[in-house]
Amino acid sequence: MSHKYVYMFKEGNATMRNLLGGKGSNLAEMTNMGIPVPNGFIVTTEACTLYNSSGKVMSDDIKRQIDDCIAQLEKSSGKKFGDAANPLLVSVRSGARASMPGMMDTVLNLGINDEVAAGLAKAAGDRFAYDSYRRFIMMFADVVIGVSKHSFEHAIDEYKEKKGYKSDESMTADDWKAVVDIFKKIYHDDQGKDFPGDAKEQLYGAITAVFQSWDNERAFIYRRMHDIPYEWGTAVNVQEMVYGNMGDTSGTGVVFTRDPSNGKKAIYGEYLMNAQGEDVVAGVRTPKDFMELEKDSPACFKEFLEIAAKLEKHYKYMQDMEFTIENGKLFILQTRNGKCTAQAALQLAIDLVAEGIVTKEEAIRQVDPRSLDQLLHPMFDDAALKAGQVIGEALPASPGAAAGKVYFNAADAAVAFHERGERVILVRLETSPDDIMGMEVSKGILTARGGMTSHAAVVARGMGTCCVSGCEAIKFGEKQFTLGGEVIKEGDFISLDGSTGKIYKGDIPTVEAEISGNFGTFMSWVAAVPNKLGVRTNADSPKDSLKALEFGAEGIGLCRTEHMFFEADRIPKMRKMILADTEAERRAALNELLPFQKKDFTGIYEVMEDRPVTIRLLDPPLHEFMPTSEDDFASLAKDMGKSVAQVKEIADSLHELNPMMGHRGCRLAVSYPEIAEMQAQAIIESALEVKKAKGFDIKPEIMIPLVGDLKETRYVKETIQNKVEELIKATGVELNYTIGTMIEIPRACLIADDIAKEAEFFSFGTNDLTQMTYGLSRDDAGRILKDYIDKNIYEGDPTARLDQTGVGSLMKIAVEKGRAARKGLKIGICGEHGGEPSSIAFCAKIGLDYVSCSPFRVPIARLSVAQAALAGEKFD
């Protein structure tokens, strides 16, 4: 018996998501629940994977199974595929296991040709039949064959202009017949052959086109943004067509069971009568508010509300539903967990728990940690907002505040100017999936067309990007638009308020976000989840430390002391120390730096109180502190009593061929132990003084960077320890301090048992560990990794998301060996990966004690830790 690659809806259920995809498994589930779903079948994700691994060829076995399912559809519907008298038409849609709205391709009305169109006209009217036919020709030609849809759109626009029509509603049956002929000619001129009329040929072509759309650029970008593996592939859903364009008793719509912008319990959606689904989401026609359906089709309105409530309770989350009404009969075409803003996700969590639909633990699992980032960024300053000049108002499609320069081209201008460091506001007539790159880099999106469920709105909400849509008052010109009597040119500043839909002229300043209300309640649930993985912060100043505490940090996992030396009053003294000819001169310069270091540490200790503070000794190559301008060289030379030439000669001698693997970290402490001594003195004296003055139980953790050898670790530790013990003995005050190491060299992982003989804690510096494991400088990684990611060699950027196979294996070795040598060894992570959800789950799995990340990622880390605990992540 051959492997099963195709399933009828009735054969599946919601537990088969990985095989049938999200859309397919939900269609199967609804079918078995008795929901009115047009019948159909699913070509599985395994079939997609087989297709991709077999030279992009669909096997005969899969075709045979598809044919068998078409026969079952014919039997259940009483219609015949490709038959002119009683035709069965189908839709072909993608459906990956993770929702990817608009990223892959769809074909509607498949199975139609000249004969079928004529038969359809007899049964349902000429206008409906030829409207359906022209839609299919354009979709099939664009999606399956690659003939640009713009050729067809331009032809319709030209035809309507010639006839004096303002909208599609004015088109008659004869007009659509004429357009069909025009479309077939466009196809023939482009392809050199007639449009395919064989229904089976159309079906196989459409299914393979959906498989191929898994590889299109917009799908690739979306997968990268949302960490969706390429290996998952997509399923294909083939479903009997139902028609919303059969007249005034037919229609189609998209509805959320709650408001996806704020999460409030209210049906939120839009519909159009006498239309097909793409008319709503494409924003070509401005749809009606869903509540008006009660007047247009009261029975369907009532039935839909009952189904919506049933599905939300069944799936335990807000549902995003698509429906079609055909001659007064309601059909549900899709349901899925709705994408929404972070504000809405928290409101949903609070409400669903209050309504008894989910538990607090289930609510915690439902919120994407990355979405919290939306809540942790600036909003408009109230005073500045009140003084701002409103030039327009439209639909508040995705909340938040955005200010930037206007650009109109998504693929070129938006991306190019973003790469130059500019804040971009993308302004478009309407967006399409092809605009995904420009949308991703934009601070905000403004469209002239489209409703609250248009492509721009849905994608922007998913990305957490501010969006105002449907501003029909915009009048476009050559690289400019007019709104509210103002001419806004490309490069001019505008500001968007995605919560109100208001559009402002100019660059309105912002203020920091605050945690309160639902956020505070939700994070209190998160805090109540028992777990063994703590969350610290990477902070180098009292201000950053305080912000991290507000977000729930339990201590500091990385304080980078080098950041303290770059201020204007300190950098000259740092340069004097580096350029000193003798140890005595160097110690004199270090004595000038000591008060600054003590002041910084004192401020941090006072904020952190009894919480642990891990302070890394000076790490970067010394040449990074050197002057670059002639004025700075001259000033430094004068201060040191040397010539400019002498200073430049010394500075040049500090440059290295590969500085990231050069004279830095613990190597500086070996060559110049007096630097480590000064830093140890600042760390300990400030701790002793704050403990005495404030009574806090200060717990400094002194961290040696870049170690790779036991003797090296021992030498630097003894240098620090001798100084520390001298200071503590002199004051007579007890102090709980520890000396540990960063683990950021592969060799350190492999000999972690040796290093643990001296190190009292480990902290993985996964930024450096990643670049050294890959042999890839992080300074050059961006342009190199782009090629690897674009060509599917790497799924994502290992500098952003931890490489669990390679770097992760080294970490596991270090954990096992380190704890074998020192029982109870405390181990954390302080690289950028410490704030990335999948990396945090891995850290929980291998038994780390804490993760550390930037202050604004602390809530993301806390939620990720709670989710890992609820998932039961354990050390292998």
Please tag this protein with its features.
single chain; 876 residues; alpha/beta; 8-stranded mixed β-sheet; 8-stranded parallel beta barrel; 34 helices; 17% strand
Structure overview:
- It is a single chain.
- The protein is an alpha/beta fold.
- The strands form seven sheets. An eight-stranded mixed beta sheet has the order 14-24-23-16-17-18-19-15.
- The longest helix is centred in the C-terminal third of the chain and has 26 residues, at 583-608.
- The chain is elongated, with a radius of gyration of 32 Å.
- The two termini are 38 Å apart.
- The mean pLDDT is 90.
Task: Please summarize what this structure is.
The protein has 876 residues and is an alpha/beta fold. Helices cover 46% and strands 17% of the residues. The chain contains 34 helices and 33 strands.
Major β-sheet annotation: 8 strands, mixed
**Could you tell me the radius of gyration in angstroms?**
32 Å
Q: What's the N-to-C terminus distance?
A: 38 Å
- General form: elongated
Number of helices: 34
Share of residues in strands: 15-25%
Question: Overall pLDDT, averaged?
Answer: 90
Number of strands: 33
The share of residues in helices is: 40-55%
Q: Would you identify the regions where 5 or more consecutive residues have pLDDT less than 50?
A: none
**Class by SSE composition:** alpha/beta
Strands of the widest sheet, in order across it, are 14-24-23-16-17-18-19-15
